[in-house]
Amino acid sequence: MDAPDTGAAVVDAPDLGADHDSPEKARLGDLADEQAALRRVATLVAGGATPDEVFTAVADELSHLVGAEATFVSRVDPPPGEGEEPEGHLTVVGSYGRVSDRIPVGFRLQLLPGMIQATALRTGRPARTQGERLANGPHAAWVATLGMRAGVATPIVVGGLRWGVTVAATSREDFPAGTEDRMAGFVELAAMALANAKAQQELRELADTQAALRRLAMLVARGASPEAVFAAVAREALRHFGSGTARMIRYEPDGRATLVANEGTTGPHVRVGESWEGYPPGGLTATVLRTGRTARVGDYRDLPGGEAYLGEGLRSAVGMPLHVNGQLWGMIAVGSGQPSLPPDTEQRMAGFTDLIATAVANAQNWASLEAGRDELARLLEEQAALRRVATLVARGIRPDEIFLAVADEIRRLLGTDSAGIARFEHDGASVVVLGGVGQIPVDLPIGTHVRLRDYTAPAVVWRTGRSAQVDEDAWRGVSDPLADGLRELGIRAMVASPIVVEGRLWGVVNALSKQGPFPSDAADRMADFTELVATAIGNAESRAELAASRKRIVSAADEARRLIERDLHDGGQQRLLALALKLRSAAASPHGRDDLRTEITDVATGLMGVVDELREISRGIHPAILSKAGLRLALRALGRRSTVPVEMDVRIDGRLPEPVEVGAYYVVSEMLTNAAKHAGASVVEVDADASDATLRLCVRDDGVGGADPLRGSGLVGLKDRMEALGGTFSLHSPAGGGTTVSCELPLPTDNDQPHAGRTG
Q: Where is the Phytochrome chromophore attachment site domain (predicted)?
């Protein structure tokens, strides 16, 4: 018997004098007392008392039955087999008597040979000790301190296992004879009550565990984040299995460990979400990682490197591995300030951790699903942004408007304070501002050249050709106007992504934030988007280059026509006219023969006809009046020469660019010719208006309609000419409903300069 279990005193046996009942009657009284004690214990069990309450009641009742001054109920860990020398520890689970404050519930001591507890557990029978044998036993010092002089120990067998031991102690010389039998009989019957209490406790714990798992399942079903699920797991584990702390550890692929949840005690080394470092090589984290099995620390005082845990107030802990999808995912550990957690902690936690692993897997799967949905939503958003930009390109919107749209899409996608787009100069020393949007008040005109600084994200993009993210630390110690401006505006981070068009580094999209560093995937998100935007910009450039090329071709053709018209007018036409005049003069001579004069007159008349035909041809090639007097008078001249009546309304002041005037002239000329030759029209209406930087032209006849560009008319050429000039051409010609052609051509204005933009 150890010191705690030997702190009882013996009371005198009852005086069985002649005046008292017979021994048999006394024995019946003792039996009645035992039965009454057992009924009281059974009533406690039936009423749902906890095992601790039942253990204390057993100690109390036993003390009264055998006249002990102190009684203890202790659990052995681990339970010994039959005939085996017990090892391990005893834990007091029920205490009664005058020394219960010295040996409270939860008190632990090591089993040593020679202790009456060890003897009772080994033999399975009660054991007694007293006098010198007790005073000189393994815990003599404790015995002397507590003043115990005799003790009786009786094993407790529950479910066929030697679960624990009871000890009755007294400060008298010894217990009466037969005490062992009384204790054994009571404990044997009490063991059933203890088993029932234990079973009921296990049922309650199972119900609590199931409720905890239901709560966790609800969290997962509601789509809670893995972090929230981990924190809930730690709370439930502490509630059911620990008394000091509960924490979850995740093992990373590189062998590191991460603390994902903590509930209870803490310390400087406890930082949720960060690496779990400095753990002892023989501790729970290392052991579970190395073995994949359960680990236990009986006393951190005995563990090298356990000082940090002692600093938390922990003495013992148990770690259970968590296997997810067949792989060691991590560990859940519980700790206590007591010298050792109960021996069945691992067993109790086993079912819990298996189900927790399922909850973790479900939470991760749910998180993966949510992440997949978020990724899909992001992708759809980016695709929608690209479609919006591509639609602008397809509509022929000016590049500077497209650049503004791109900047706005980037700002919206990343949620930045400002975003802008710029084109790199050939040497990379500066960029040209092309557009920007956002809340940061930095207004730079489009076309402004901005010198790059090494600490900016666009400069890094130029050097590396890759996306770049730069935080405020990069310009914190820099003293120049740009760095000063960034600090004054409160810019804390910038991220930039290259725009690569047809294999060349064309430009950069730059975003600024006043909120702090961008998320780690911001550069990648921008890169994903700008890679798609580059295609749109490339298409816009190609379209612009094609339009410029077509315009140059049209201008070259018009110039060639003008030169031909001039050569005809100033060259062959003038010579033919001169010859005709000479022939007329010769025919008018009084000395010539009549027949010769007649022939000369005929030739002169024919030459004048050729001159008229050449004049008409030169008008078709390039009307001289258009070059001399402008579109307004040239259109009126067409109306006068038309064989079909023309109602003309021309609202044009001054001259327009020559390509625009030529294009509009040919539209009206072709439509008047078609109205006369094919439409059978009785009237043609011509409306021309130059305003708001646009020339709007409409030619309408009341003819037979049905005009079809595919049948070889000049309508296709007109449409090509209008589009080459950046304009539009539309035809409406229902059968029997006349023909209407509408055109719009852009005109330069005095304000046709790049717009101011907000840079990013």
A: 398-509
